[in-house]
Amino acid sequence: MQLGMGVRHGQGALIWARVQIGKICRAVPWQKGATARKKRQRHMTVDAGPTERRILRVLDHIHDHPAGDLSLDALADVAALSRFHWHRLFRAVTGETAAQAVRRIRLHRASVMLVQTAMTVDRVARAVGYDQTDSFARAFRDAFGTTPAAFRKRGELRPFNPSHPARRTVMHPVDIPHEPTRHLAALAHQGPYPEIGRAFQKLSAVMATRGLFADAGAMVAVFYDDPAATAPEALRSHAGFEMTAEAAIAPPLEVVTLAATRAAVLTYTGPYAGLPAAYDQLYGVWLPASGEAPADAPAFEVYLNSPMDTAPEALVTEIHLPLGSG
To answer: DSSP string of 204-256?
Structure first.
């Protein structure tokens, strides 16, 4: 399950949480056979298409407006892409978060200004988006190992240092089915993703006491934020079970509807510890090469079996990425 949306932070805790969910929920039967999992991958074009254009447009915007609003939401607007996916896509393609790119570009611009102009340090700081000179000085020292004044005195211009993400290939099958509408009986969770096990435990208890498991299907988790860009206490998610249309859902349960759509479905087989790399491959390798674009809807995971009765290397998880127009 994508506890933490596939990022590398706190993986030990995330793996623990996934195992706990497996312990409190019944084993989910296989939803697809081996034949479905072996479908031929969609042909990848050489032209990166909309993903490449979005990345370049955002990088141009950062370079052209270093003192402007370069928040995650603002850059998602420039990219014309849902914030559900923007940060993950940028990080997977470029090898750094949007915040890291903004900081690197701003400080490089500042280093050029310090050497090539007579602007005061205060003015340079403001010109690259730092309202407080002290904050600018600390960030500059972290990046260049010296103070702005000492850097200017040295008169050393350094070449721009772009990020270089590691070369990767898609190691897991990706299909593009047209998925039906899914209705989940769910409980919301706000807070660190590793703690979503509490929501799953409560959900399982309510469903058991109401006899709802007779109408339940796959176990599903929906994660709305990227921990690399959102404070842990503000992370939002839902723990849910897919339900039939006839199931009676009442508080504290809520109905979460995942709309019918085309979707990229990556089938990952193996220990949950490998899911972050699978997400990186989906967003950073498959999506740019496919010419597809994410829809304005969150990715979610469907669990086809359970760690309660399945060896780690045989666990099967589907990562669903809703697709929109290019």
So the answer is: HHHHHHTTGGGGEEEEEEEE-S-TTTS-GGG-EEEEEEEE-TT----TT-EEE
